[in-house]
Amino acid sequence: MQTENKFIEFKKQRELGEILSDSFVFIRNEFKPFFGTILKIVGPYILAMLISMGFYMYTVGDIINLGNIGNASISTYSPFIMLLAVAAMMFSSIAAYVLAQGTVLHYIKSYIEHNGKTDYDEIRSGVYGSFWSLIGLGILVGLSVIVGIFFCIIPGIYLAVPLSISFAILVFLKKDAMESYQYSFTLIKENWWITFATLFVIYIIVAIASYAFSLPSIIYMWIKMGVFSGEMDAENMNVFNDPIYLFLNILSSLVQFLMNIIFLVATSLIFFNLNEKKNFTGTFERIENLGKSSEE
Questions:
Q1: What's residue 287's pLDDT?
Q2: pLDDT exceeding 90 applies to what percent of the chain?
Q3: What sections of the chain are H helices per DSSP?
Q4: Are 202 and 263 within 8 A, CB to CB?
Q5: pLDDT for 152-172, tens place per residue?
Q6: How far is it, in rounded angstroms, from Cα 138 to Cα 181?
Q7: Cα angle for residues 239, 42, 204 (degrees, 5° grid)
Q8: In which band, very low, low, confident or very high, does the pLDDT at 73 lie, cut at 50, 70 and 90?
């Protein structure tokens, strides 16, 4: 894939504002090939996630359908169907998010290695090759943050900051899951607060944008329930079986999923910023390239 846009140097130190601006510049410059690659690799899993999400919501609607209380003959609820819906949504969501994270990281890796160009086959191979390592690391990170939050929330926040870059460490430094987990604390040492501030700002931006896209489904739900008219109807309290609400909610979930891509690009830039401060990898590479150019 060719790109005519200006090459963005990832391996350099950046301030908070530069991380934010370069994240959006990279996505804007690489929009078509970037999201095209994501859709080719992750698209089927995103579709499975959205279908299973709709199936789950429809099943939940059967449980809370107030109109069916006391009338089991018209209820379609089944414990087996509910378990199937939960399992389908859980596994499809995990697959979609892990593959999306892997695709973003391997796309950036290919972009860096080929000076602004990317190789789809290389990206796809890298994504599937690191799938189980990313799953394992995700379990480690998830359990650590959950346990940390259980102990007064603050430990969970403290752990979440360094562990957010552990996935980038796994892909860019080619470490295994445990090494990536451990090295994230080494890399972020003395830079925890600025990393926290950067992640917090990015999270707020993504959260606000995601909320804006979820408003149509929320407004429709309020209208359906009679919130604006003041005429609350028990039979309309359940909107989960409403096709329009399901469509709006699934569309909102898709947008939120894609908005998460911004966060993934930003964490990659944060990783390179921290790695450059500690190891000067990009600086040494540029000096080496200058030496080669002068020899030629």
A1: 65
A2: 50
A3: 16-29, 31-64, 79-113, 120-129, 131-150, 154-163, 166-172, 177-188, 192-225, 243-279, 281-295
A4: yes
A5: 788 889 999 999 999 999 999
A6: 10
A7: 65
A8: very low
Q: Supply the DSSP symbol for 238.
A: -
Burial zone of 198 (CB within 10 Å; 0-12 exposed, 13-18 middle, 19+ buried): buried
Contacts of 154 (CB under 8 A, 6+ apart): none
pLDDT at residue 294 above 50? no
Global confidence as pTM: 0.85
Cβ count near 215 (within 10 Å): 11
Among the listed residues 285, 205, 276, the one whose alpha carbon sits nearest the alpha carbon of residue 21: 205
DSSP per position, 131-178: HHHHHHHHHHHHHHHHHHHHTTSHHHHHHHHHHTTHHHHHHHS---HH
At 273, phi and psi to the nearest 5? -65, -50
Burial category of 113 from C-beta neighbours within 10 Å (exposed 0-12, middle 13-18, buried 19 and up): exposed
pLDDT at residue number 289: 62
Q: What is the mean pLDDT of the chain?
A: 84
Confidence of residue 43 (pLDDT cuts 50, 70, 90): very high
Assess whether pLDDT exceeds 70 at residue 237. Answer: no
Angle among Cα 55, 94, 112 to the nearest 5 degrees reads 135
Q: How many CA atoms lie within 13 A of 125 on its CB side?
A: 6
Q: Which of 206, 226, 203, 224 is nearest to 214 (CA)?
A: 206
Question: Two tokens at 6?
Answer: 């200006």
Relative orientation angle of helices 131-150 and 154-163, to the nearest 10 degrees: 160
